[in-house]
Design brief:
By secondary structure, the protein is mainly alpha-helical. The chain has 3 domains: about 70 residues, Arc Repressor Mutant, subunit A (Orthogonal Bundle); about 60 residues, Diphtheria Toxin Repressor, domain 2 (Orthogonal Bundle); about 40 residues, no CATH class. It is about 60% helix and about 5% strand. It is built from 10 helices and 4 strands; from the N terminus they run ααααββααααββαα. It has a two-stranded antiparallel ribbon. The protein has a two-stranded antiparallel ribbon with strand order 3-4. A hairpin with a 2-residue loop joins strand 3 and strand 4. Helix 5 runs antiparallel to helix 6. The C terminus is likely disordered. It binds zinc ion (2 copies). One zinc ion (ZN) binds next to helix 2.
Length: about 190
């Protein structure tokens, strides 16, 4: 479909999400967020902060307060909190369920925290929460999943039912390092 065309119009950019999170964090830690503090926290220039704040204000995410402090609107605070929570859940899913390295998980969770839609995030939360529970089915699933087996069950010569044009097992394994290359073709 035309999803990729709409990408640029997505309401929140990655940097917007992080600016909002920085304001929320500063408010929590110090009780206020000043332009200079935001700049320090994010490692950007004050003028960069000022121009981003203009964008965030135009979108109704922040208000300017007297004395150079920045206040989140209710919508802005909601966004800051949601994107941060998204990142946490994504990171737990990647490390605890998929056993991805902490550093890779941290980076990937950060990259998509503002892009995942609420329905997808909710189901991912449900799945993560279930698989981390003590339910015997969850334990059995994880054990069997971690034992390995075929990296892609749709794999077939000349095409792949699951992956399409190229089987990701072949395309990605060399790029993913030992985590994936350790997986054998045959289920054990
Ligand atoms: Zn991020
Ligand atoms: Zn495949």
């Amino acid at each position: 479909m035309d999803t990729w065309k709409r990408y640029g119009e997505k309401e929140v950019s990655h940097s917007m999400a992080h600016y909002l999170q920085a304001v929320a964090a500063l408010k929590g830690e110090k009780g206020f967020a000043r332009v200079g503090d935001i700049a320090d926290r994010l490692g950007v220039s004050k003028s960069g902060v000022t121009s981003m704040l203009r964008t965030l204000h135009a979108r109704g995410y922040v208000d300017h307060e007297p004395y150079g402090c920045v206040e989140l609107t209710e919508v802005g605070r909601g966004l800051a909190e949601r994107t941060e929570s998204n990142r946490r859940v994504l990171q737990v899913f990647l490390t605890d369920i998929l056993s991805v390295d902490e550093s890779v998980a941290e980076e990937d969770a950060c990259m998509i925290e503002h892009l995942v839609s609420p329905p997808v995030m909710l189901e991912l939360l449900r799945l993560t929460s279930f698989l981390r529970s003590d339910a015997p089915e969850a334990r059995a699933f994880l054990e069997s999943f971690r034992r390995g087996g075929a990296a892609c069950v749709g794999h077939a010569p000349g095409g792949c039912d699951l992956c399409g044009p190229v089987c990701l097992r072949d395309a990605l394994s060399p790029m993913a390092g030992e985590t994936l290359t350790r997986i054998d073709d045959t289920p054990r």
